[in-house]
Write a structure and sequence with these properties.
The complex is a heterodimer of chains A (237) and B (226).
Chain A (H helix, E strand, L loop, with lengths): L1 E10 L2 E11 L4 E5 L6 H8 L7 E6 L2 E2 L4 H7 E4 L11 H11 L7 H11 L15 H13 L5 E5 L7 H16 L3 E5 L3 H5 L4 E6 L2 E7 H6 L1 H14 L1
Parallel strand pairs in A: 3-8, 3-9, 6-7, 7-8
Antiparallel strand pairs in A: 1-2, 1-4, 4-5, 9-10
Helix pairs in contact in A: 3-4
Chain B lengths: L1 H17 L1 H27 L4 H30 L3 H5 L5 H30 L8 H26 L5 H29 L7 H27 L1
Helix pairs in contact in B: 1-5, 2-3, 2-5, 3-5, 3-6, 3-7, 5-6, 5-8, 6-7, 6-8, 7-8
The chains are: A alpha/beta (237), B mainly alpha (226).
């Protein structure tokens, strides 16, 4: 479960988030949308403990993220703008490094690592260095890295970017599997079409807080498309 | 401690494959020894300059350069390749990241130390008067201190815009009087077989290592967040 209560964040005098509340339940996929510069990535970084909020409270998996950041990081898997993987290590070595850094038992890695690479469609390239991977393959490796320790919470920032159709299908399948496993998923995206088939709810971030929410039936009715367009135009204006 | 070892192993494995840092540190050291060989050969032969003094000073120039080059890339590479945040997302104490980086830096710099000691011996046909082990011991103590200070300063400067300039500006004043000068003295005494005269120097260097190790260990959370 992800919960932000009254979260504000300002950089100097610029206020990015203002008394923001958001909640993602267990087994729920929520899309976070909004115009450029709305603070979506900032919110994700706060939830991932990479940034401290100026005020407010973040609850991850039932515990306060600020009080016990190490526990929080153990519960969270993050796919960010960067892949966080090492070019000079093979796909399997990259996963082994993050597996070990998450204090997972060493003896279980070989099976879990190969299985994870199979899930993202990279098992045939497990002994290749990440430096020879295409951008899309690196993104798939980043998804595997985020999932390798079976997190309870997934925070994804534009995860579909640079993925080809096969990659999009793989990620969609993984997200549905993670949802059925009870994982809370928050996805920052601009892709209304892709998220329509996947999300249980879409929240639009505007003016530093959640301006509108669309439940799954509203998303499927097409209300999200119109609502998101309106917020983007307001953001540009 | 396990996380520190995992991080250090990862860094060393990457370095073993890319050889980016060791090769530049190694070439710096080789260049210094060769330059000293040609610049001071006559002075040494005529007895105007003692080989012990030359060895002590030139070796510590090599070690210092190696440290600065090594420290500079330590965090900068993680930052430039956008993997630093990946490390910060790992559920480990930040102090483990400090220890892991310091450990991998120590291994790399100490390899260059050993090569520099070997090159100086070869180029000057010098056997350190039979005290090479003591010279290596002083190099190890000094390098541990340099690396602990350097790792902390490298982490502080990694987010700065002019970090290439900032690192030596912060590091050199810190190490010049507290580490380099006592180490040069201790190395000279080690070659002369009088290392016991440098016990106070070595204790002060080790004390400095302890202080900076503790500061780095305890403050690394704030350093990385900064």
């Amino acid at each position: 479960m992800i919960e932000a209560r009254g979260v504000s964040k300002h950089f100097g005098r610029r206020k990015v988030l203002s008394w923001l509340d958001i909640r993602v339940g267990d087994g729920e996929i929520v899309a976070l949308m909004g115009p450029n510069g709305a603070g979506k990535t900032t919110l994700l970084r706060i939830l991932a403990t990479l940034l401290e909020p100026s005020s407010g409270q973040v609850i991850i998996g039932g515990g306060d993220a600020r009080e016990d950041p190490i526990r929080t990081r153990r519960l969270v898997g993050v796919v960010g703008h960067s892949t966080y993987t090492y070019d000079d290590l093979t796909a399997l070595e990259n996963l082994r490094f993050f597996w070990s850094m998450n204090s997972m038992p060493r003896r279980d890695f070989q099976r879990a690592g190969i299985e994870m690479l199979r899930r993202v469609g990279l098992s045939h390239r497990m002994n290749d260095r990440a430096s020879v991977f295409s951008r899309g393959m690196r993104q798939r490796l980043a998804i595997a890295r985020a999932l390798i320790h079976s997190p309870k919470v997934l925070l994804l920032d534009e995860p579909f970017s640079s993925l080809d159709q096969k990659g999009v299908d793989i990620l969609t399948q993984i997200l549905m599997e993670e949802r059925s496993r009870g994982c809370s998923v928050l996805i920052v995206t601009h892709d209304v079409q892709r998220i329509a088939a996947l999300a249980d709810r879409a929240d639009i971030l505007q003016g530093g807080r959640i301006a509108r929410s669309f439940d799954s039936s509203a998303i499927r009715r097409g209300d999200l498309d119109a609502g998101y367009r309106a917020s983007s135009e307001a953001g540009v204006a | 401690m396990r996380a520190a070892l995992i991080l250090a192993t990862k860094d060393l494995k990457i370095e073993l494959r890319s050889k980016e840092v060791v090769s530049s540190m190694f070439l710096f050291s080789l260049l210094i020894v060769i330059a000293f060989r040609f610049a001071f050969a006559e002075a040494v032969d005529s007895g105007a300059l003692s080989l012990e003094d030359l060895a002590a000073s030139s070796l510590w120039i090599c070690f210092s350069f190696a440290t600065i080059v090594g420290m500079h890339t330590s965090f900068a590479k993680e930052k430039d390749r956008e993997t630093l945040e990946g490390l910060m997302l790992c559920p480990v104490d930040r102090s483990a990241l400090f220890l892991g980086k310091a450990l991998s830096n120590l291994v790399l710099v100490f390899i260059v130390d050993l090569l520099s000691i070997l090159f100086f011996g070869l180029f000057f046909a010098f056997d350190y008067d039979g005290h090479a082990v003591e010279v290596v011991g002083v190099a190890l103590v000094g390098t541990v201190t340099l690396v602990l200070v350097g790792t902390l300063v490298a982490a502080i400067s990694v987010n700065a815009r002019a970090r290439e300039v900032l690192l030596p500006i912060l590091l050199i004043p810190l190490i010049a009087f507290s580490v380099i000068i006592p180490c040069v003295t201790a190395t000279r005494n080690a070659i002369a077989g009088e290392l016991t005269e440098s016990v106070r120097d070595i204790v002060s260097i080790a004390g400095f290592a302890l202080i900076f190790g503790a500061v780095g260990y305890l403050s690394f959370d704030y350093v990385l967040e900064g």
